[in-house]
Each structure stands twice: as C-alpha cells, then as structure tokens.
Design brief:
This protein has 208 residues and is an alpha+beta fold. It folds into 2 domains: 85 residues, no CATH class; 111 residues, Immunoglobulins (Immunoglobulin-like, Sandwich), CATH 2.60.40.10. It is built from 4 helices and 9 strands; from the N terminus they run ααααβββββββββ. Helix 2 packs antiparallel against helix 4. The N and C termini lie far apart (104 Å). It is found in: Membrane. This is Myelin-oligodendrocyte glycoprotein-like. GO terms for molecular function: signaling receptor binding.
Length: 208
Amino acid sequence: MSNTDSRWTEAPRRDRFLRCVTQLWVYREPRTSGCVWAPSMKSRINQSSSEVQTALVRIQFVWILKEWLAESLLELLFFCSVAHAQSARLDVVHRFIVEEGSDVTLLCSLGNDDSIEKMVFDWKKTDQEVFLYARGVHYNKGITGQDEQFRGRVSHFPEELKNGNASIVIRNTVLADSGNYTCIFPDFEPHRRFDVELVVRECFHKET
C-alpha cells in the first residue's frame, strides 16, 4: 500500500468517502483502499466533469447536513426531556401570604387555553384533601372525602375551566391553612403537578 493510500485510510471517514466518490466518478473504478461499490451504483455514473463537481458538492453538503441534523437531534431530545420534566412538575413554588380571616386564591393552570372541563384535578395539602374536581363533579357537588378543615370553605372557578384554569379559593383562612399545597392533573402521564405555598399570618387587629 502506498503512503497516499495509507494516509487516506487513516483520514476521517467523511474524507475517505469523498475520495472514493471522486475516483468512482473520474476513473469509473474505486482505487482507494476500502472503497466498495454495488454494480447498480456504477451503472448510474455520468462522466461529465461538470456533473462530477456538482455531485461532489451535493454529496459534501448532504454529509455536513447529516452531521448537523444528528447533533441538532441530540440537542432537541435533551431540550424536550428537560422541558417535559419541567412541565411534569414545576420546581418554582409560588408563595401566597395573607392575614388570618381573609380569602386567598391559589393559582393552578396548564398554561394553555385547552379546556379542563372533562378532566380531573386534585388539590392536596400534604395528605389532606383540599379540593377535587372530576369531570363536572367535585367536593361541593356530589363527591365525598374532603378534609374537614376545608369543608365549605373551598371553591373553584367553573367559568374558567374552559380556559384551563384550575385555581381555587380558600375563604376565611385560618393559621392551620398555612403549608404547601399541590395541584395535580392525574390524567397526564407522568402527572402534571404544580406546587404553591400558603402563609397565613395572625391578625393582631381583630375586631372585638
């Protein structure tokens, strides 16, 4: 094997490929070590020098595009995996601070305008059931199991369900309402989950 052949054998794969194609176009026969061509490919070779140059440019472009697409696909897959993880559970916890006895709205939304009227969402405070909505029925309409602490004090926004809004209102807050709340959409896999924190401060100016 000549030094030239040795250098081409050790060259990057793309360069060896282009070298093989060049020899196939010009000499009608691959002369570089490692070039293997099917007979059907040889039969389609055109000897025009202008077409040779055009073909080589196209081949190089396709190769570069292939490598770029491969790298872009990896980046896209990584981005999608991160975005999917973030959409499944928000790491940012929104905090709401209110005085004892006031009302507070705890926000929860899928972030789009898709209706959730035919879906399920469940508000929890640790292991306590705060509010459950299930395709038209909820704790204030036909479903039992709400924690006694929140019974009769929690409601949602029926007119906003068509806009993807699953927020709730806790009325006449008490100090025991302070804590971490979770809004879960179990219809998704993995579940969509949104966390909020409620801080109820004692009111020192209570009416007597």
